[in-house]
Amino acid sequence: MKHYIRSYWTKYKQLYKKGLKGIAAFLAIGAIIVFVLATIASRGMGVIFNEVMARQTMMRGTVTVESLTATPWGTLSFTDLVWKDPEGRELLTVPDGKIRVNMWDVITRNFKASAINGIELNDATIVVDLDDNNRLDFVPASPDVNKPLNEVEPRPKPPKKTTQERQEELGKKVRNFNWDGQHLNLTITLRNNQLEIFQKNRHYVMRNVNSKIHLDSNRAIRIDMETGKFGGTAIGDGLTLKGRVDLKDVLKHRMPQLDLQFDVKGVDPSSLGFGDNIHDAMTLLTKVTGDFNRPLAKGRVTMPVLRIPALTFENVVGDVTYQDGILNFENVNANVYGGKLEAKGIYNLDTRAYTITGIAKDLDSSEALKTPEFVVPVSANLNFKSEGQPRDMEVWGNFWSGEGHYMLIPIKNITGNFHNKGRHLSFSDVTVNTNITTISTDALRIDNGQLTMGPLNITSHGGSNFILYDESFDEIDENMDRIKEGMKQAGENSKRASESAKGIDSIKVSDDVKESVGDVKRQMDEVKDAFKGIKIK
Fold first, then answer.
1. How far apart are CA 301 and CA 320, in angstroms?
2. For residues 77 and 96, is the Cβ–Cβ distance under 8 A?
3. How many other C-beta atoms lie within 10 A of the C-beta of residue 514?
4. Cα(342)–Cα(380) distance, rounded to whole angstroms?
5. DSSP strand E in 247-308: where?
6. Which residues are CB-neighbours of 40 under 8 A, at least 6 positions away?
7. Which helix (H) or strand (E) holds 224?
8. Residue of higher predicted confidence among 404 and 263
9. CA distances from 142 to 62, 195, 203 (A)
10. 482: β partners
11. Shortest CA distance to 203 belongs to which of 235, 228, 226, 173?
12. Could you tell me the CA-to-CA distances from 22 to 10, 19, 36 in Å, in that order?
């Protein structure tokens, strides 16, 4: 019995080994045959490429390459690819790149869109046009692709046609790229590309575009993209786009669903119409969700510093939402001259019109005016408005203060209104209350750096009232300047005398100090004489 089992096992092992060897030989022969066929196919890849381009229906027009090489593993390397529409206009230019295909489909001449596994484009110029539903098409490049980014046409004008008219045109439009529901499953790699985008009435040119996009038209698109500087409707340092677009049931007329992180860095506020000369960088960090044709973005806006006429904000941080071309800012906070700002606003990306309201609290007047002699805590209601042109930015509001002082003069409070447009800053209903007087004026303007002041109404708490007119201001200003300079000099002389007298029991006041004090007294007398000429009302 044992001999029988041993004999059976020996024969089984021999048959098993022969079977394995047969399978291995079959696989090896099959691999060799596929390799030979692939090699033969790769050598005729130029003919195959031309045949495929002639039979494909997605890309309208003609696609040609300067040279084409292939490997048996399905990688086609090309140079100088050019796609032209039937009218001869260039839709895409690619200096060099690669196409990866399924070689079995090539061998069997089963040329379908699904045969392409990957596309790599290097140093290409890509121009896309997105319709009202964000459907993609390829169009010829504009002259702006060769301009500096700050000269790219922003095209901010709103569309002249109604939405219904635009939708009717979409059905009649001849498209250069037609997907037609074909199954696509490939990876698209972009290296150092230039991208021009037309979207409704918006226009962007982006440099140094690098991305990896995996597209499965039955499931989803996965995107990982980063760009360099861009210009057009907005100017900035770059953007990143990462995440997923769900394509499930798209063929059943369900809109693709977005789940993306979209960050825009170093946006120039002046390019958006926020003032004519405001270039402090703004960063938007947002999460994008919703339908592909109507995305909703929510996130944060940050700016290290924002300088506008007469105000400098630091550490600006707030919430932002975007939908249908509207940026909505909420809970914006910033530091300003030792105080705090709280603001909100709305910005229209297409018309560039905006309104912003806010309240600034406890600003340090000496820091804002760069005048250490004038110290009061100031608060203000702020309003910013523009209809879309950088130079029409208008700022207005009212302000009030707490107790402080100007030089040695105590101040109880200050109230008033202000208005600023262009280089023209005006104040009205300004009232300064001290312990002994109330000073008010209805006219105070700064035009291109020149101060113009109307009459000052001065009312003492004892009941007397008088008005200071323009002819008195210059003389008083000169005397006040001399008084401040004299006080400064007297202080310095006194300091020097104190330092030189350390350790001496008896100190003799120097002649310099006496002379400085005398000068201050004489200048105070000159101010009194100037007030004698004031017209009393």
1. 6
2. yes
3. 12
4. 11
5. 257-267, 282-291, 294-308
6. none
7. strand 220-226
8. 263
9. 20, 11, 10
10. none
11. 235
12. 18, 5, 21
pLDDT tens digits, one per residue of 270-303: 888 776 678 899 999 999 999 888 899 999 999 9
pLDDT tens figures, 141-150:
888 888 888 8
| Size (the chain), residues | 537
294 pairs with which residues across the strands? Answer: 291
d(CA 169, CA 131): 10
Cβ burial, residue 151 (10 Å; 0-12/13-18/19+): exposed
In terms of Cα–Cα distance, which of 38, 152, 137 is closest to 92?
A: 137
Cα–Cα nearest to 332, from 363, 357, 309: 357
| Cβ neighbourhood burial of 512 (10 Å; 0-12, 13-18, 19+) | middle
Residue entry with tokens 């291995």: 24
Asked whether the beta carbons of 218 and 183 are under 8 A apart, the reply is: yes
* Cα-to-chain-centroid distance, residue 91: 29
Q: Which residues, in sequence order, are CB contacts of 485 under 8 Å at separation 6+?
A: none
123 in Cβ contact with 96 (< 8 Å): yes
Tell me, what amino acid is at 224?
Answer: D
